[in-house]
């Protein structure tokens, strides 16, 4: 899951948390329209005003949840307002009495499991007596059939409050937990990429040290010896001749090392990217010819594979990646297809590295294209000419 996928998941979780507030408004408005609420206009006005302030604070609490912090002050004030609104509205369980449970649905997020259970029990313990006492003095669309039975009313209110006091808080905690898992997976993928870069740098530094470290040390020693032999020109000249030979050897080995890093091996690169994709949870399927890709295009294709897979890991929400290589007597084709499509056109992605790949392919007479298609997939296609007579 890329950055856009995380942002989309965050918006979805925020919507789901705020749906509890929307449910509270729906229940309150339906109950008020049906005449099951405060009969006094002053009480109704105060209840509505309190619900508006409650809603504003509720939205602040949900935003804080997605910022990984617990807004203690807002939670406390919102809780007091929830009960004030419930009492002003009559506290009937299927009307204004739902507001404290809307508060509980977000107040329990961020607490430990034990504290969340205790908070839910306390909310039920306070809301149930209020609902029972106030419902005894007014009609309610659900509890009217129990008018002659106080015991039936008590049991009904307790069961109802237990259900909503259990469902909404734990459903919202589940949504936030899933979102946090997605964030952790995303952070883990980025850490894996940084670790791979660090390991490559260490390997490069180690190889350079092994290749030219000895020659450079010998050059330093012989140069110092030549200075000491300044009074003996013949011996000093011999030492400097050896310094020159060592310098040439070091330069040659350095060039070979750099050339080895710049010219990737296609087979090794395919195996490497497959392992990285599968470690990141992306199914990788390779479709390769039965013979080796021509040597003149294999290094370029290796760079294309590396960059394409890097983009799959960083910029998409792909679940699979298909890599296909084929060639005829005239051209070789590499296709990298995945089901993660970015919203921006590829040409606008400055950091994608695709411009550099296009230049590499152009240097061998090839072309590069990268675009999403109508089926919701993204395909990167590289085409390069090969020597006549070579076919798979």
Automatic annotation (TrEMBL):
Signal transduction histidine kinase subgroup 3 dimerisation and phosphoacceptor domain: residues covered: 200-265
Q: Which organism is it from?
A: Acrocarpospora phusangensis
The transmembrane segments are 12-36, 42-59, 118-137, 149-171
Q: Which InterPro entries match?
A: HATPase_C_sf, Sensor_HK_TwoCompSys, Sig_transdc_His_kin_sub3_dim/P
Q: Per its UniProt entry, which superkingdom is the organism in?
A: Bacteria
State the name under which the record lists this protein. Answer: Histidine kinase
Q: Which GO terms describe its molecular function?
A: phosphorelay sensor kinase activity; protein dimerization activity
Coiled-coil stretches are 237-264
Residues spanning the signal sequence:
none
Q: Which UniProt keywords apply?
A: Coiled coil, Kinase, Membrane, Transferase, Transmembrane, Transmembrane helix, Two-component regulatory system
Q: Which Gene3D superfamilies match?
A: 1.20.5.1930, Histidine kinase-like ATPase, C-terminal domain (3.30.565.10)
Q: Which GO terms describe its cellular component?
A: membrane
């Amino acid at each position: 899951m890329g950055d856009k996928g995380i942002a989309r998941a965050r918006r979805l979780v925020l919507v789901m948390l705020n749906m509890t507030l929307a449910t509270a408004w729906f229940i309150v408005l339906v109950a008020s329209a049906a005449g099951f609420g405060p009969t006094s206009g002053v009480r109704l006005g105060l209840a509505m005003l309190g619900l508006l302030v409650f809603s504003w604070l509720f939205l602040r609490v949900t935003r804080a949840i997605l910022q990984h912090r617990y807004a203690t002050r807002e939670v406390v004030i919102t809780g007091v307002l929830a009960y004030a609104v419930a009492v002003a509205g009559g506290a009937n369980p299927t009307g204004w009495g739902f507001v404290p449970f809307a508060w509980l649905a977000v107040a329990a997020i961020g607490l430990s499991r034990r504290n969340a259970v205790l908070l839910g029990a306390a909310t039920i313990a306070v809301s149930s007596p209020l609902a029972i006492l106030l419902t005894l003095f007014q009609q309610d669309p659900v509890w009217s059939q129990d008018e002659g039975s106080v015991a039936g009313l008590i049991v009904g209110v307790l069961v109802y409050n237990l259900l909503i006091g259990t469902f909404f808080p734990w459903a919202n905690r589940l949504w936030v937990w899933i979102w946090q898992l997605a964030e952790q997976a995303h952070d883990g993928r980025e850490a894996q990429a940084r670790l791979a870069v660090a390991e490559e740098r260490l390997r490069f530094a180690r190889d350079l040290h092994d290749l030219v470290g000895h020659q450079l040390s010998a050059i330093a020693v012989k140069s110092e010896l030549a200075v000491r032999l300044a009074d003996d020109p013949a011996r000093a000249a011999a030492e400097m001749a050896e310094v020159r030979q060592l310098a040439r050897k070091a330069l040659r080995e350095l060039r070979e090392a750099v050339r080895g890093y710049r010219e990737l091996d296609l087979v090794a690169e395919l195996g490497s990217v497959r392992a990285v994709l599968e470690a990141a949870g992306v199914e990788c399927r390779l479709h390769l010819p039965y013979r080796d890709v021509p040597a003149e295009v294999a290094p370029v294709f290796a760079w294309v594979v590396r960059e394409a897979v890097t983009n799959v890991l960083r910029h998409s929400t792909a679940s699979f990646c298909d890599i296909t290589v084929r060639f005829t007597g005239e051209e070789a084709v590499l296709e990298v297809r995945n089901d993660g499509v970015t919203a921006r056109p590829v040409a606008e992605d400055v950091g994608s590295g695709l411009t550099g790949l296009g230049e590499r392919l152009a240097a061998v007479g090839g072309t590069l294209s990268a675009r999403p298609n109508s089926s919701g997939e993204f395909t990167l296609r590289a085409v390069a000419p090969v020597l006549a007579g070579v076919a798979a």
